[in-house]
Amino acid sequence: MSMRKKNSGNSKSKLLIPAKTQSRRVAVLVLGDIGQSPRMQYHALSLAQAGHFVDFIGYDGAKPMNQVLSSPNIKLRHIRALPRPTSAPRAAFYLYALFKVLYQIVMLLWLFLFVIPTPNYIIVQNPPAIPTLAVARASAFMTGAKLIIDWHNYGYTILAMSLGDGHPIVSVAKCAMAADLRDNWKIGGKIVVLHDKAPKHFRRLTASEMHKESLLTYRKADGTVDMRKKRPMLIVSTTSWTADEDFSVLLKALVLYDTVATQINNSIEDNSNREALPSLAVLITGKGPLRAYYEEEISRLQLCTVRIATAWLSAEDYPLVLGSADLGVSLHTSSSGLDLPMKVVDMLGCGTPVCAYEFPCIGELVTADNGMVFCSAAELAQQIQDLAGQLDSRGSAYQRLLQGAAAFRQIDWNTNYKCVLELLR
Q: Is pTM beyond 0.85 here?
C-alpha cells in the first residue's frame, strides 16, 4: 500500500481546491462491483469505525455486507456500468475499450469534483489501473487530497492475460506504470505493508453451530452435538471465474479422486482391512465470466463419490460456509506472481486448511503448518485423498493442519489496519 503526498510547490501557480483539515473524509474507490470487493469493504468499515466519513465509490451489483449498508459513516456512490456488446468482432473491442475508459474518466471526475464532498484522502484499489490511477491522481491534485493506493497487483499483467504480453496496449500500460513507480512513488510515496487478514467474524464454527445449518453433524443422547463419522468431506473453492484460475485442474483432480475412491470402496467387501474413502461435497462459490463455461463442464462429469455445486453466497453466509468446510482449495496463480489470494486469507481466517496452486509467493500464506501446495491435478487429487482419510483421526496430519489454520487467525484485519490509520493522522 502506498501513499503519495502532493508536492506543495508555488501556491500561486496552481489552481487547487484545498481539502478541509477539520474533518477527515475519505473517498474509497474501486472500479468494480462493490459487493464483490471484500478488501475495499473492509477498508470502508475500518475507516468508518475509526470515526472517518467514507464515500464508497464503485459499481452496483452484489449486495455489500450489512455492516457497510448500515454504517452511518459510509455513503455508497454508484457508478453506472457501461454495457458491453455481447456479439461484436474483436476489432470492436478496442473501440469499446477506448470509449469505456473515456466514459469512466468523465464519470469519476464528475463524482470527485461536483458530487461528493471534498475528500481529505482518496484510497484506490489497483488493479484495475486504467483509468483509475490517473483519475484518482488528477482528482487528488485538483482537490488537495492525499492519494493512497492499495497496490496488490500490476494492471498490465491483468491486461496481458486477455490481450497478450506483446500487445501495444499492454506495452503502454507497462511503461506508464514503470515510469510512475520509478519517477514518482520512489521519491514521494510512503509505502506500508497491509497484510491481508480476515475480519473478526471469520472463524471456525462449532459442531453445534454447524448442526443448525448442515447435515454433517448429529445430536448425541446426552444432547451434545458431534460430527458424523461417515460424513462427506466438505470442500470449498472460491473463485472470480477469471483466466488467472484454471478450474480444469480442480475438475481433473476430482475425477481422479472419484476413480480411486470408487475402486477402494468397491473392494472393501473383499478386504475388510482397508478404510473407505469418504464422499466429497464440493461447493464452488463466486461470480465471473467463465462460470457458465465451467458449469457446463461440470454437468458432463459422471462421478460416483463426488458431488459438485456452484453458488453465489451472500456476505453473511460466506464465512459460515468457510467456517464449516473441511478443506479449502485455491486455484489462483497471480498474473504478476506477486499478489496473494484473499480467498486463502478468508479460508485460513475461518480455521480451514488450504490446498493452493503453487506460485512464487504463495508460501507467505500457505505453509506446512496450515496447508499444502500443488502443481498438477494429480498432486491435488493425492492431497485430497490423504486428508480425506484422516478427518476424524486424532494426531493426524489433517488435525495438525487444523491447528495451524487456527493459529493463523490470531491476528485479524482490525489489528493490522492500524498501519493504515497512521497514514491518516
A: no
Residue range(s) occupied by CATH 3.40.50.80 in the chain: 2-197+414-423
The domain 2-197+414-423 having CATH identifier 3.40.50.80: the answer here is yes
Tell the burial category of 255 from Cβ atoms under 10 Å away from its Cβ (0-12, 13-18, 19+).
middle
As averages over each run of 10 residues, the pLDDT of the chain (425 residues) reads 45 38 79 89 94 95 93 95 73 80 87 93 79 83 88 48 45 44 51 73 82 67 70 92 86 97 82 77 92 94 96 90 95 68 92 93 90 97 95 84 91 82 77
Cis bond upstream, residue 128 (ω within 30): yes
What is the distance, to the nearest Å, from the Cα of residue 265 to the centroid of all Cα atoms in its chain?
A: 37
User: Which letter, b or e, does each residue of 269-300 get, where b requires 16 or more Cβ atoms within 10 Å of its Cβ?
Assistant: eeeeeeeebbbbbbbbbbeeebbeebeeebee
Tell how strand 280-285 and strand 306-311 pair up: parallel
Q: For residue 397, give the nearest of 424, 371, 420, 375 by alpha carbon.
A: 371
Place of cell 489462483: 332
Distances (CA, A) of 421 to 15, 43, 148, 424, 425: 29, 10, 11, 5, 7
> Which CATH number does the domain 207-408 belong to among 3.40.50.2000, 3.40.50.150, 3.40.47.10, 3.90.580.10?
3.40.50.2000
Burial 215-225 (b: 16+ CB within 10 A, else e): ebbeeeeeeee
